[in-house]
């Protein structure tokens, strides 16, 4: 009995010794970064109509366009935005600070000015907003005539019911809108001209002329309205069929890259148009010291399903003498890129190639440098790429053979 007890104790000790031990306190850090850019560029120069007189009609313009970073980013295509109106706040007499401030949303949709500020008589109902530029697709922007909404007690509900929608889309060659902000000046009680009703109805036939007459107490007083241009949605281009991050060995795996230069800037430093945008890229034409000395480099990539398809190339037109290149698919010349002529700037560009309808499945693509070697070719090589993808939409200029 004693032996059996000792054996059992030994077995228990062995079992405990074989259990893995874990730290009671442990931390793992994942580095997460993002560069946040504006999708729109808006001219925010204040619109000052100055001194105006009843029943005048005065036009001012506001430009809204896609930002440079949005235009360069291939993942996104279009932006939906809204033009909204809110009351304007002016500083109280004797208070120090900026002359104007913006309202905040108070209880039950009532706008509130910061302490030390008061609301100006609201100018918003007298402002029409219509786009004047020709869009790639008709009627993708809205509009509103003057004489809309209440002339007092403007609330969030009024802001929302009088908002105007706008849209910009790279795929439709619609990258900028010019809006006409048209002031229709009100008259004051007891002083309106006989044709006041005609003036109002000619601008908005559904408006009640009597509702837009200002009280005599507001005569010679400053009116105000803030226009808020807010992004309401961003749409992506079609999802890539397949994508390669050039210079990233994991992403390159399985795509049979041949005759490419070394990963940059890890190998030779240099600017590379802002470090290849994502930190890594390669050239197709490298010297024998840095590659095999041939002008061409190849890879394989899915051509995608049948239909309209594009091979999209993110190429650097840099300070080399000539960054021109040709594109071959399955041995056939399909497109050519011409150097932009600049030798003082480095710009990453999307160049798109229509994939022939006869091509299916995995295709072999050859990129061939055709330009004259530049002085630093022996170090850096020529014609760099950082991303390559196939998709149903072109990311940039469609190249011809």
Protein topology:
Elements: H1 2-17, E1 40-42, E2 57-66, H2 68-72, E3 76-86, E4 88-91, E5 100-102, E6 104-105, E7 111-112, E8 117-119, E9 127-131, E10 143-144, H3 156-161, E11 164-169, E12 176-184, H4 196-203, E13 226-236, E14 242-245, H5 249-252, H6 272-275, E15 282-285, E16 296-302, E17 310-317, E18 325-329, E19 332-337, E20 347-354, E21 362-369, H7 377-380, E22 382-391, E23 397-398
Parallel strand pairs: 20-23
Antiparallel strand pairs: 1-2, 2-12, 3-11, 3-13, 4-5, 4-8, 6-7, 9-10, 9-12, 14-22, 15-22, 16-21, 17-20, 17-22, 18-19, 18-21
Any idea how many domains? 2
> How many β-strand runs?
23
Structural class by sheet pairing and helices: mainly beta
Range of strand content? 25-35%
- Average pLDDT for all residues: 86
In one word, what is the shape? Answer: elongated
CA gyration radius, whole angstroms:
32 Å
Intertermini distance? 94 Å
Largest sheet, described in full? 6 strands, mixed
Provide the succession of SSEs: HEEHEEEEEEEEHEEHEEHHEEEEEEEHEE
How many H/I helical runs?
Answer: 7
Report the helical percentage: 10-25%
Low-confidence stretches: 1-18
Summarize the structure.
Helices cover 12% and strands 33% of the residues.
